[in-house]
Amino acid sequence: MGSSWIVEHRCTQCGAPITLEEADRYFACPFCRVRICLTTDDHFRYYLQPMDNPPEEIFYVPFWRVRGIWFICDDELEIKSSIVDATYCGFHGGPYPESLGLRPQALKLRFAGPESGSIFPEPPQEFNSIFERVEGGLPHNHISNLPVRVFHKSFLGEKVSIVYAPFFLKNRALHDGILGKPLKALRDGMSNVPPQGSIGRPLTVIPAMCPECGSDLEGGRDSIVFFCRNCNKAWYLTKNNLERKGFLVLNGNQEATSYLPFWRIKAQVDGLKVQTMADLARLANLPVVVREEWESTGLFFWVPGFKVHASLFLRLARLLTLHQPGDFVDHEEPLDAPQPVSLPVDDASDSITVIIASLIAMKKRIWPSLESVTISQLHADLVYIPFQEQEGDYFNPSLKISVPKNSLKFGQNL
After folding, report:
1. pTM of the predicted model, to two decimals?
2. Euclidean distance between CA atoms 130 and 84, whole angstroms
3. Which of 7, 173, 312, 389 stands 20 to 30 A from 355 (CA)?
């Protein structure tokens, strides 16, 4: 997966120029030191700066940008995963390019807000309508010509944004608004009317200050959970504000050097019997005797709260869901070196079906039932698990799980 796109922005406090990465949701201005959280009510929107003094009026065309991991469970009885990082024109079938290619990586973006003074049209195709185009470009769709039956598919770490590219029309030809070069002659019947739109939507800018005590909040650049070290409270970044988020800390019985976040989710699973510990033991065909008390012991699904590659994500989720840790401790002091939470809880809930698929022992008999499985999140806890650093890994000796440090760096680009 390519490197993150670069976004030019200005501090909302002092107006100083700031360079952000596309995934940044938190920054501290190097000039006035103000700390800011960025959010939006639907999708982040960017635009590419057009050429100076274009010969005709510039108009903008929206492109959907999709980045994440696609999971497929099919009748070959294996979980296939593909990294998706692509752009798709919001005006499918028109005279415009199907993709932006490498251009957003080579050029700097800007937020498509009212301050730009430009008109930005809404994509006529909603994001869900381009999923077939996304899926059609995945590698496993070209491996075999034999039809396969798909039992489940899901998109993890979903990062969807809109990028506006500039164009202009001259002599009945579409021209690139950045280089000024002609791209495509308009055939008879093709509209020469640029798409209409409105002034860009403003970002929601939230001061990174504790809503309770007013102290500065701390977090990673791509984090969606922020900590106040003064009152030891966590705050979750929503579409329009900061909401208080309680958190649990697992007892590690050792000196921790870092804490990794996980979502502990209680969910209603319809279409498959998997609500209790006994159900899990039967589903995974565990080599244990199912205890009577397990029949009434509720089941929690454990999902990493950070982004990593597909195989490690499923391994961690599977191990912790099977283990069902529950020994929590009171942690009155601020956590040392907590890993940023970069996977929203709703995305974590969306991954539960593929986690269940990875736990099923008798796949040939049970996987077809995945087609009718629906998941409803009932409750979610944010849990921090203590880890020790060992060379290139984070290791928890009690749970006997390790997480390579490099995988966390890789996950920042998912």
Report:
1. 0.89
2. 13
3. 389
